[in-house]
Amino acid sequence: MAGLRLASVRKKFGATDVIRNVDLDIADGEFVVFVGPSGCGKSTLLRMIAGLEDITGGDLFIDGRRCNDIEPRARGIAMVFQSYALYPHLTVYENMSFGLTLNRTPKSEIDTRVREAARILKLEHLLDRKPSQLSGGQRQRVAIGRAIIRKPAVFLFDEPLSNLDAALRMDMRMEIAKLHKELGATMIYVTHDQVEAMTLADKIVVLEGGVVQQIGAPIELYKKPANKFVAGFIGSPK
Ligand code: ADP
Ligand code: MG
User: Fold this and answer.
1) Which residues does the UniProt record annotate as the domain ABC transporter (predicted)?
2) Mean pLDDT of 77-106
3) Of the ligands numbered here, which is closest to the C-alpha atom of 53?
4) What pTM value is reported for the model?
5) 37 Cβ contact list (under 8 Å, min separation 6)
6) Phi/psi zone of residue 76: left (φ > 0), alpha (ψ -120 to 50 degrees), beta?
7) What residues have CB less than 8 Å from 177, skipping those under 6 apart?
8) Pocket perturbation via mutation, ligand 1, pick of 11, 18, 40 by most ligand atoms within 8 A of CB
9) Distance, CA 41 to ligand 2 centroid (Å)?
10) Alpha helices for 103-227 (secondary structure H)
């Protein structure tokens, strides 16, 4: 497991400032949600933490180690995308084990981990299927399973439920909360959905235009929004 620290983290695309001086401490095992409207920089911030995007300025520490220039695979992080990004020609089992196979993890160890993840995610009976034979919710479970079997210290989720219908989204939300309890890993979760943010988070980071508007527990944001934007976004009474 690992905590994270962002110190004055900035991102420019060309001349455009997309993330401005983000300072953020994330404790080991914390569930942190980045929330804000489309285009506010949530994915960019997450992708910098994952190492999929260069950091223009500032410092990123993971478990006390400065990681600005550490390659993604060495950061101890796994990311789950909205689009699932499964291989259509591989089975559920193969989709989950693929990354570890490349890492030369022993077959028996891979098998143990895949079956454990399948148990947690209720995919045991689907291991031989191809993604086209699965529902949207099942596909997203496979994508989460693929992250779990890498045993990352930090999980990153980028709007993982946005492609699912409302009822399924609620189910999956509960499952992700359960997963966090069971694994105890640090999780950073991006969404534009206030309800998801309020129900999942230990700590919420509200972003607008690449600027942090407020950081706090859901109840703090609700009771003491820092400004009108936060109040409006969170749905506070004032
Ligand atoms: P969010 O995930 O909150 O919807 P993004 O992080 O995807 O927002 O994008 C933040 C801003 O950065 C947007 O204005 C977007 O157009 C811009 N942006 C994102 N990726 C790139 C890129 N590769 N090149 C140029 N601009 C980008
Ligand atoms: Mg995004």
Assistant:
1) 4-234
2) 89
3) 1
4) 0.94
5) 192, 208, 233
6) left
7) 31, 199, 200
8) 18
9) 7
10) 107-120, 136-148, 166-183, 194-200, 218-223
